[in-house]
Amino acid sequence: MRIRMEGFVVFDFEKQYSEARKELAKWLVEGKIKRQETVIKGGITKMPEALRALYDGVNTGKMMVEVKAPAAGSRSKL
Q1: 13-22, 41-50, 62-71: which has the minimum mean pLDDT?
Q2: Of 20, 24, 2, which is closest to residue 10 (Cα–Cα)?
Q3: Distance CA 71, CA 62 (A)
Q4: Where are the alpha helices (DSSP H) in 9-73?
């Protein structure tokens, strides 16, 4: 039994970052890819709680602390 793993260096493709961002954003909107994130609400005062939760493995995907609620109608950018 064998396994092979191969990767690439993202910096080798720096000229394609803009195109990749657009394509990834499109795929997110279309539901072709999904992101997982855990958002702790309550501002910067919740940071210690979020840090403990991070080390306890409570989060799914990216762990974030919401410092300010997003404005109505605004969209996050990739």
Answers
A1: 62-71
A2: 20
A3: 21
A4: 17-30, 47-56
Going by C-alpha positions, the residue among 54, 56, 62 that lies closest to residue 36 is: 62
Give residue-wise pLDDT tens across range 29-57: 999 998 889 999 989 899 999 999 999 99
Tell me how crowded residue 22 is: count the other CB atoms within 10 A of its CB. Answer: 11
Token pair 């720096």 is found at 14
pTM above 0.90, yes or no: no
Q: Which residue bears the tokens 């997110």?
A: 28
The three-point CA angle 34-40-35 to 5° equals 5
Instruction: Assess contact for 67 and 44: CB atoms under 8 A.
Output: yes
As given in the structure block, the two tokens for residue 73 are: 């109608």
> Which pair of tokens denotes residue 1?
């039994």
Distance CA(42)–CA(66), nearest Å, equals: 7
